Every structure is written in structure tokens, then in C-alpha cells.
Amino acid sequence: MIARISIALMLALAPMTAFANQCPKMMAAIDAALPTASLSEADMAKVKELRQKGEQLHQAGDHAGSQAALGEAKKMLGI
Length: 79
Fold this sequence. Notes:
The protein has 3 helices and no strands. It is an all-alpha fold. α2 (41-60) packs antiparallel against α3 (63-77). Helix content is 85%, strand content 0%. The termini are far apart. The chain has one domain (17-77).
């Protein structure tokens, strides 16, 4: 019985850890692309804002929200 509960708990938490692992990779990709990005000042400011928001959401445990913000930033950067 305990083994079944443990397995169920691990399976339930697996997607959460998958989301958590993607956020730092997305932030690193954005950070790498920023120095060579050719965007308007307004778009660059928006990308930086989304990057910061993504990091804050990641730290707060909202990995889906973090990935959404970071994904939008990546899209604006063309990566």
C-alpha cells in the first residue's frame, strides 16, 4: 500500500520537475541571445521584462507561467 502511494506521488510530481528544469534553460538561451539581438528599444525592453517576469515566476514555483513568459521572450528574439 505504501509503495503504491509512493509511486503515485512520484508520478504526480514528475511533470512539475520537468517544468522546473526547463525554466533555467530558457533563461540561459534568452541571456545568450540578448547581446546580439537586433530589436527596437521597445521590443528589447519587453524581452527583458518578460525574462525578469519568467525568473520571478520560476522562483515562486509557477513554472507554467514562467515558461509562458520566457517562451514569449524567446519568440520575440526569434529563438
